[in-house]
Amino acid sequence: MPVKQDRVAVVRHILERHSLFGSLTPDELDQLIAHARVQTYAARQTIFEKGSPGLGLLAVLKGRVRISSLGREGDQVVLNIINEGDVFGEIALLDGKDRTADAAAMTECELLAIDRRDFVPFVRANPEVALRLLSVLCQRLRRTTEQVEDMIFLDAPARLAKKLVELAEQSGKPRGVKAEPVVTISQHELGNMIGLTRESINKHLSVWQQAGILKVGHGAITILDADALRQQAE
Fold it and tell me: Are 216 and 205 in contact (CB under 8 A)?
């Protein structure tokens, strides 16, 4: 459905904070929002599948999205987690070809969708957006390269610690001066992100919980000692 008038200010604020659209003028943002629509998804609902037509770009207004791919034996590899304010689907936006991975809602989600047929003319009129889009793609490529290097060079505890630090930094701290960062993710999903079994994840988390580095809850991990966790990553 189109963006409702009472949501335009919220959508504009999210786009203004993003590196891809941050330098656009209010009029240019309004042009973009005029072509956008809001889509809602329930938790665990599929957004698109690998090989499906790449129709355009999506931005997360609310919730979190998991980007993953299935191996030949049916095992799932989590490639990325997209948080509020971030965009995904930019590869298909550029080349118009099929999706390169699966996307599913981790929580209830509101997504801003911009079709390629509307976005391409907009980029032609605003060439600086194309340069920033290339920057976003480069960041994705660097992250993928780093993931491959981690799989090769880091042992299991170091990979797990590094990923927890990364997810904690992305999630930010809850309100409260003494509040600790909380990573909301299942152990199964965490294992899929770094190529470890749930049993292996649980073993390392239990050791760190006993050491007072973190606290494991249902579907959430509270980081109690970020410095100690960074040492584990090194």
Answer: yes
